[in-house]
Design goal:
57% of the residues lie in helices and 2% in strands. The chain has 266 residues and is an all-alpha fold. It has a domain at 2-87 and 112-209: 3-Layer(aba) Sandwich (Rossmann fold), CATH 3.40.50. It has a two-stranded parallel ribbon with strand order 1-2. The model has no long low-confidence stretch (mean pLDDT 87).
Length: 266
């Protein structure tokens, strides 16, 4: 059912709870507000904080590299691609899993999409935030929410993505976003008078379902080894077997979503 609803192989693990919540909400209301954009604009994602930490540790390394003529020790695009894609299929992984006759379609640069949206003139955090909005938000999150909600006749509004708010926050100094390892400081300061303290102090939680639904190796084995992707020589059974042996559930999940989509539409 979800392969039909989402219309493309969206392999984000929140596709199931997103659809379930949309279905539940549609039984009570016609429109809802969504918090999408808050993490992107207020620096709430773990990879944004991790990147800034790495940049802070990078200062002396960068100076040394420049003096010695070495490559810079931190590639923004490479870091972003690795942080964003749990179970990332880079060029090496694609060569492992794709059938030999599909090898010619593998791009030389598996991060080409991120490079197209990279903005070298921006500061480090702003560059990451821009890629979050252009790549993660635009190509995944909003597509996922729109299709799950529309399938249930539910309207979703995203107030954090107001363009004036975005333009304002992109001018804020990077030092304002973090305080004593705390993220989304600006947003928390703005809403502390109206939001319960236990909410403000709560640890960050991703919007995902129970681990059991994407870590069940037997499910992947049954669906993929007898699936259409192997039958039609898109991927190899040997590659799937290797992921099963390594319990690589992130990559198996992505392959399963592709399998479901392929059966529905191809």
């Amino acid at each position: 059912k979800l392969a039909y609803v989402y219309d493309e192989p969206i392999a984000d693990i929140s596709i199931i709870p997103t659809y379930a919540v949309s279905e539940l909400a549609s039984g009570h209301v016609k429109a809802v507000l969504s918090g999408e954009g808050a993490d992107d604009l207020f620096a709430g994602y773990t990879w944004q904080y991790d990147y800034m930490q790495k940049m802070a540790d990078r200062t002396w390394q960068q100076k040394l590299a420049q003096k010695l003529g070495w490559p810079e020790p931190l590639d923004t695009i490479e870091f972003y691609a690795e942080a964003m894609a749990m179970g990332r299929f880079d060029t090496q992984e694609l060569r492992k899993i794709l059938h030999p006759h599909m090898q010619a379609s593998i791009p030389d640069d598996s991060e080409w999409f991120y490079r197209e949206h990279g903005r070298t003139e921006l500061s480090p955090l702003k560059s990451i935030q821009n890629m979050d909005v252009q790549c993660f938000m635009g190509e995944l999150v909003l597509t996922k929410i729109d299709r799950a909600s529309m399938a249930n006749s539910l309207e979703v509004r995203v107030p954090y993505l107001d363009h004036e708010l975005f333009e304002t926050l992109m001018q804020v100094r990077e030092s304002c976003y973090f305080q004593f390892e705390q993220q989304k400081v600006i947003l928390k300061n703005l809403i502390e008078d109206v939001m319960p303290q236990e909410i403000l102090d709560r640890s960050k939680q991703g919007f995902v379902g129970p681990d059991s639904y994407y870590q069940e190796m037997g499910w992947y084995r049954d669906e993929l080894l007898d699936g259409h992707l192997i039958r039609d020589s898109i991927i190899t059974g040997e590659g799937v077997q290797q992921y099963l042996q390594n319990a690589d559930h992130w990559r198996l999940w992505k392959l399963l979503i592709l399998e479901k989509w392929y059966r529905e539409w191809m």
